[in-house]
């Protein structure tokens, strides 16, 4: 009897467990597109969540989202801040907060549950939290900007001088000293919460009781400091001690102040380094105290004797003061902190992921190139800094020089005019010493160290390097995708491009990590889709939009770089292919992330820029700009690419006007786009030859991809493009960084991926394979391998790898990948490929193989989405879904089309 009861109980538990597993689950919950974010804007936040279900074709039918002022209240069901109740909606991304006003500097707790297609409820998600930033200036509690020494406003040089000031220029200034600042304070009761809000210009590194606060590098991010200054928020509750505590901060120059002692792209200064900070301490009894930056802090010069973002950094370890950032340190010789003139920029929370040191590279080869000189080869070009371990005597100095290339004699070659960039370290003579720069970085594959022992000669008196590594710095945005296939060259191209992307993802998207480090808008305009398939850049692009808004000129121009630290001239300040990112970034956030709120925020900036372009147009044409930058042979006329981007951006603007209920504007911009299209075809299209302009790859591909070709001419223009590639170009690449993306799209999306495969699958002519063949380890600035050895601008091929070969894209009218388009392209010699992409709704995955007339593809489709899947198959082929034959699929040409809901499927075409 007991055995029977036990059997019944087991069966009941198994049934119950099966029922629980069959229900939809919330597997990820985000606020402001981040997990448990701190320092968010309490007046503008949103929630998103991802779901999983073992069932197929599951959609959300309702949700309930709740917010409480404490975790205890949240778990007890006391939702004292916000409760949506049950909302009948399938919306699971960009759910805007609409509760009562949130307070500054507070932590809130939230969770969500959902109902599936069958109206079955999930369990609550795991409890989440978010911490608000500072809303008004008064919330800073009278914190002041402080520093070591003030710079008179008369010495300010903004915008910066391009390159160096001429000898004798009275504006020339010395490198601003990098100060230490400290403050001791006492906690008197049990601490429940401690939040630090801090900004240091140009950059800062903070510590509490001798321990680093956070793990960011070069914080805060780069901005137009007269308009916007970013601050960071840290929960340091666990670092506080009962009784005495000490905050320590070291400041660096960054882009805030750049002197010209070494290499510079621009010289200028907003002022000397300065700090603002507020520590909010909430005790267990509910009382609150504040520690603010003011004249009660102490300041002194740091051991960093030189630092610029372009020239490098010097450090004298003999100047270290042990325990300077700990309680009880004797700081009587230090000065009182100086109250600095407050910058004019508005303090805003940094909403993007921080830049961090995320990889460590070890040397693959070490070569003696001189009596006291060693060169380390790390085998990979990346943005980075050296970290050195060394033993020696106090006062000995070694020089560290990073570079991308080598001279014939094996010494490092800082080519492309970026010399000198270097670091120096002076030893304190205290056993093994470890050092790395704090406030500068470079593009580095090789590191040369001068003034060291280079062999095992124990009689040498020079310092001995015991270890040298390179630490790679990049934006800590989560990885968004993966790709691999059976073609090893394509895998190497992917890696080559990925290193260039992540080396140039900093607090904005740089053009390169050595020569300029500026935010040229072309990189983000041409590469945003390719970048987004590899890294989640939603928060980054929101920051980029703020930079463009700040940089906009009075006449509406959005310059080619933002922040506009240097004001260039001619097309280097105004090239529409670069500037139209001011419109297309917002359209990107709408299309890829479903964020329509961004339109209202950026609409004034976008329309002012559109008006500027219209004022510069001649008969609806923009016949100026940088053109198809770095194309091979300069074969595309100036003006074609500018006008194509003009049409593209005005069309996007008309769509955005519709989305925010501005029908008159939408009509006006549609009409303008029509006039631009008519003028473009009149100017550049030859109806007899069916050629655009010179018939170059860019001239033909851009009109095809941007809907500038009249429907009656599309087939003829496409055929001309393909014929010219085959017969005239001999499958050689000629498009530059403006047009290459559209060449890829024109071929892959219009039935000619085999042609694209042939162009890409070679290394004998300038192109991706050529760069690899000649030793590149990151994507190079030009197709022939010259100039910067680490530049992401030509990396558009990743779009094809994801959307074409792996087959992961979204349908034309889809938003945020709600309706997927899964259409793998098994071209050339490819026999298999795998791809994954983290969409706003969750991971999309494909994995296909091709062999012996059988094509098999595994696809993962997230809950709350659907997919149209295209399999390569001729009419009459047998199509199987999870080993069951499909009777109702449609055949279109050489493809079979299936409509699928969420789930995991194995699809086979025989």
What would you say this structure looks like, in words?
- The model is unreliable at 1-20 (pLDDT under 50).
- The chain is globular.
- It has five domains: 2-131, Immunoglobulins (Immunoglobulin-like, Sandwich), CATH 2.60.40.10; 137-352, Jelly Rolls; 356-473, Jelly Rolls (Sandwich); 481-805, Alpha/alpha barrel (Glycosyltransferase); 822-909, Maltose phosphorylase, domain 3 (Sandwich), CATH 2.60.420.
- Strand 47 and strand 48 form a beta hairpin.
- It has 16 helices and 48 strands.
- Strands 22, 23, 27, 28, 29, 30, 33, 34, 35 and 36 form a ten-stranded mixed sheet that branches. Strands 37, 40, 41, 42, 43, 44, 45, 46, 47 and 48 form a ten-stranded mixed sheet that branches.
- Helix 7 packs antiparallel against helix 8 (597-616) and helix 13 (740-748) runs parallel beside helix 16 (797-805).
- 23% of the residues lie in helices and 32% in strands.
- With 910 residues, the protein is of the alpha+beta class.
- It comes from Larkinella insperata.
- Residues 479-804 form the Alpha-L-rhamnosidase six-hairpin glycosidase domain.
- Residues 812-880 form the Alpha-L-rhamnosidase C-terminal domain.
- Its EC number is 3.2.1.40.
- InterPro entries: 6-hairpin_glycosidase_sf, 6hp_glycosidase-like_sf, Alpha_rhamnosid, Bac_rhamnosid6H, Bac_rhamnosid_C, Bac_rhamnosid_N, Ig-like_fold, Rhamnosid_concanavalin.
């Amino acid at each position: 009897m007991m055995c029977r009861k036990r059997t019944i109980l087991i069966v009941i538990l198994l049934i119950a467990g099966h029922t629980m597993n069959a229900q939809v689950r919330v597997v990820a919950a985000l606020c402001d597109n981040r997990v448990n974010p701190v320092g968010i804007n309490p007046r503008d936040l949103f929630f998103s969540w991802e779901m999983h279900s073992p069932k197929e074709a599951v959609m959300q039918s309702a949700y309930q989202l709740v917010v409480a002022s404490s975790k205890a209240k949240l778990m007890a069901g006391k939702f004292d801040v916000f409760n949506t109740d049950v909302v009948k909606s399938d919306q699971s991304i960009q759910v805007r907060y609409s509760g009562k006003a949130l307070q500054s500097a507070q932590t809130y707790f939230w969770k969500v549950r959902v109902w599936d297609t069958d109206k079955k409820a999930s369990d609550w998600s795991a409890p989440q939290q978010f911490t608000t930033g500072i809303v008004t200036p008064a919330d800073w509690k009278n914190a002041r900007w402080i520093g070591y020494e003030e710079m008179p406003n008369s010495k300010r040089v903004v915008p910066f001088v391009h390159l160096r000031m001429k000898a004798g220029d009275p504006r020339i200034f010395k490198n601003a000293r990098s100060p230490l600042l400290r403050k001791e304070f006492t906690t008197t009761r049990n601490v429940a919460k401690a939040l630090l809000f801090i900004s240091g210009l140009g950059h800062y590194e903070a510590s509490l009781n001798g321990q680093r606060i956070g793990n960011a590098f070069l914080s805060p991010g780069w901005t137009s400091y007269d308009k916007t200054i970013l601050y960071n928020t840290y929960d340091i509750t666990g670092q506080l001690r009962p009784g005495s505590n000490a905050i320590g901060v070291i400041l660096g120059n960054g882009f805030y102040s750049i002197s010209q002692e070494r290499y510079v792209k621009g010289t200028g200064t907003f002022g000397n380094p300065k700090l603002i900070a507020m520590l909010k301490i909430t005790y267990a009894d509910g009382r609150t105290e504040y520690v603010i930056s003011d004249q009660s802090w102490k300041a002194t010069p740091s051991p960093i004797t030189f630092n610029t973002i372009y020239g490098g950094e010097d450090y004298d370890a003999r100047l270290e003061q042990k325990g300077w950032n700990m309680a009880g340190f004797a700081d009587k010789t230090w000065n009182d902190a100086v109250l600095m003139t407050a910058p004019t920029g508005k303090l805003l929370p940094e909403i993007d992921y921080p830049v961090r040191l995320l990889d460590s590279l070890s040397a693959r080869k070490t070569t003696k190139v001189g009596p006291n000189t060693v060169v380390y080869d790390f085998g990979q070009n990346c943005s980075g800094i050296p970290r050195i371990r060394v033993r020696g005597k106090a006062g000995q100095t070694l020089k560290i020089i990073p570079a991308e290339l080598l001279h014939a004699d094996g010494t490092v070659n800082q080519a492309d005019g970026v010399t000198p960039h270097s670091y120096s370290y002076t030893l304190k003579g205290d056993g093994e010493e470890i050092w790395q720069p704090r406030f500068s970085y470079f593009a580095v594959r090789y590191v040369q160290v001068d003034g060291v022992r280079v062999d095992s000669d124990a009689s040498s008196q020079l310092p001995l390097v015991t270890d040298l590594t390179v630490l790679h710095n990049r934006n800590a945005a989560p990885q968004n995708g993966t790709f691999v296939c059976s073609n090893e060259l394509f895998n190497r191209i992917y890696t080559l491009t990925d290193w260039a992307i992540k080396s140039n993802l900093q607090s904005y998207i740089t053009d390169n990590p050595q020569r300029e480090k500026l935010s040229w808008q072309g990189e983000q305009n041409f590469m945003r889709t390719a970048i987004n398939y590899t890294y989640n850049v939603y928060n980054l692009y929101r920051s980029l939009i703020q930079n463009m808004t700040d940089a906009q000129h009075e006449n509406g121009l959005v310059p080619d770089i933002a922040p506009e630290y240097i004001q260039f001239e001619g097309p280097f300040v105004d090239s529409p292919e670069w500037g139209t990112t001011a419109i297309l970034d917002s359209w990107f956030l709408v299309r890829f992330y479903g964020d329509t709120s961004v339109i209202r925020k950026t609409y004034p900036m976008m329309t002012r820029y559109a008006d500027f372009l219209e004022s510069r147009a001649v008969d609806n044409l923009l016949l100026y700009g940088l053109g198809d930058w770095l194309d091979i042979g300069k074969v595309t006329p100036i003006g074609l690419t500018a006008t194509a981007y003009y049409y593209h951006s005005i069309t996007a603007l008309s769509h955005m006007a519709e989305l925010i209920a501005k029908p008159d504007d939408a009509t006006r911009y549609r009409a303008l786009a029509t006039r631009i299209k008519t003028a473009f075809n009149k100017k550049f299209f030859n109806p007899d030859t069916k050629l655009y302009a010179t018939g170059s790859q860019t001239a033909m591909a851009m009109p095809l991809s941007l809907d500038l070709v009249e429907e009656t001419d599309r087939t003829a223009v496409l055929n001309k493009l393909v014929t010219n590639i085959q017969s005239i170009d001999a499958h050689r690449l000629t498009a530059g960084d403006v047009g290459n993306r559209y060449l890829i799209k024109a071929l892959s999306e219009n039935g000619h991926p085999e042609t694209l495969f042939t162009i890409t699958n070679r290394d004998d002519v300038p192109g991706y394979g050529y760069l690899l063949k000649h030793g590149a380890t990151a994507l190079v600035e030009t197709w022939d391998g010259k100039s910067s050895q680490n530049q992401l601008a030509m990396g558009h091929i990743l779009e094809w790898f994801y959307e074409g070969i792996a087959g992961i894209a979204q349908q034309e009218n889809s938003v945020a990948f709600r309706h997927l388009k899964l259409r793998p392209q098994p071209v050339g010699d490819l026999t298999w490929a795998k791809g994954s992409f983290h969409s706003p709704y969750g991971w999309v995955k494909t994995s296909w193989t091709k062999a012996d007339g059988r094509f098999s593809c595994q696809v993962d489709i997230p809950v709350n989405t659907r997919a149209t899947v295209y399999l390569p198959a001729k009419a009459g082929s047998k199509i199987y879904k999870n080993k069951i034959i499909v009777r109702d699929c449609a055949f279109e040409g050489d493809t079979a089309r299936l409509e699928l809901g969420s789930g995991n499927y194995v699809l086979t075409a025989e």
